[in-house]
Amino acid sequence: MAVDRPDCRLTVFGPRRAFMHVPNATYRLLPQTRLLGRHVQWPAIIRRLRPHAYFGPAGVLPLGNVGCPSVITVHDLAIYRNPRWFPGRQPLSTRFVVPRSVLRADVVIAVSENTARDVVDIFGIDRKRIEVVPHGVSPKFRPMGRDELADARVRLGLPERFILFVGTVEPRKNLETLLDAWVTMRDRPDLVVVGSWGWRYESIRDKMARLGPRLHHLESVDPDQLPAIYNLARVLAHPAWYEGFGLPPLEAMASGTPTVVADTSSLPEVVADAGMVVPAGDVDAWRKALERVIADTDLAAGMRHRGILRAAQFSWERAGQLTWRAVDDSIRARAAP
């Protein structure tokens, strides 16, 4: 956003040690106390700055008045669809901060059409107040050369043939369905799980521990290694019950990796006709889909080609431009009689 509008001055609030360089930006520390600091002191500071607009990329406004037009980005509403997927003890955020933020913002950005529908369904706001701004994909996710990949395979200790899962290990990601499908596959490749432990993962961890050495869990991976891991995989499997957007399928497609996703939430929207869509909880359907992609080289080649073309439609530059349009709309909406 800073690059797109070099004439605009940004004031960025964040916690200590979380700042990165952004042109034309001033950094300020967020007040540390959760209730008084974030919802009383912080909006008072914002009002004194007299900004033209407030942008909340994490989907929230402080409870206090910020004194200017406001835009927030809603990434997903999974906790409202199924609270059992998440740890408890989040009543302030889920019952007060997020609902009041959505209801008070002049413009709400949703990262997918599915998330936009969820915002309307859950909070009852006018669809005209919502603008859809899809995520982008970094240019580092691209098809890589054979020499690069040979070095990466040795460095990371990856098998010759494998199915890839990328995501936090937690109930919403539905890794258990993939594990059950994988163990029943004919001529199955190895399975590589890339992601840290999240929450309520104990039953998943126990199942993974019983599945033997051909299941590889890379708990801590340098983000710069991910493009090579996608490239080396025969297929990405993303069986999540719910995603607000779904970055791993987009990153996989940009890398030229065939992608199979669940038929839920935003995932069919992201992959369109470039990926294979499978019922989320149907173990046998997942087995058959993965066997097809692994065995049929023509099918896999077509998916790679369509995936690269589909991923090219998403960029962070476009996301920044659409976000600025939402900010401009919020200013015009507040100025309208």
List keywords for this structure.
Rossmann fold, 6-stranded parallel sheet, 2 domains, alpha/beta, about 325 residues, 4-stranded parallel sheet, globular
Give a short summary of the structure.
The chain is an alpha/beta fold.
Query: How many whole angstroms does the radius of gyration measure?
Result: 22 Å
Distance between the termini: 29 Å
Record field, number of beta strands: 12
**How do the helices and strands follow one another from N- to C-terminus?**
EEHEEHHEHEHEHEHEHEHEHEHHH
- What overall geometry do the principal axes of the alpha carbons give? globular
Q: Averaged pLDDT, please?
A: 94
> Regions with pLDDT < 50 over 5+ consecutive residues?
none
Biggest sheet: strand arrangement: 9-8-7-10-11-12
- Specify the biggest β-sheet: 6 strands, parallel
Tally of separate helices: 13
Q: What CATH architecture of the largest domain would you give?
A: 3-Layer(aba) Sandwich
CATH class of the largest domain: Alpha Beta
- CATH T-level topology of the largest domain: Rossmann fold
Secondary structure class reads: alpha/beta
Number of separate structural domains: 2
Portion in helices: 40-55%
3D structure, described in words:
- By secondary structure, the chain is an alpha/beta fold.
- The chain has two domains: 10-136 and 316-335, Rossmann fold, CATH 3.40.50; 146-311, Rossmann fold (3-Layer(aba) Sandwich), CATH 3.40.50.2000.
- It is 41% helix and 15% strand.
- The chain is built from 13 helices and twelve strands.
- The protein has helices spanning 36-49, 78-81, 91-104, 113-123, 146-156, 175-183, 202-209, 226-232, 247-254, 267-271, 283-295, 297-311, 316-335, and strands at residues 10-14, 25-29, 54-56, 70-74, 107-110, 130-132, 162-166, 190-194, 215-218, 235-238, 259-262, 276-278.
- It has a six-stranded parallel sheet with strand order 9-8-7-10-11-12, sandwiched between helices. Strands 3-4-5-6 form a four-stranded parallel sheet, sandwiched between helices. A two-stranded parallel ribbon has the order 1-2.
- Strand 10 (235-238), helix 9 (247-254) and strand 11 (259-262) form a beta-alpha-beta unit.
- It is globular.
- It starts with 9 loop residues before the first strand and ends with a helix.
- 35% of the residues are buried.
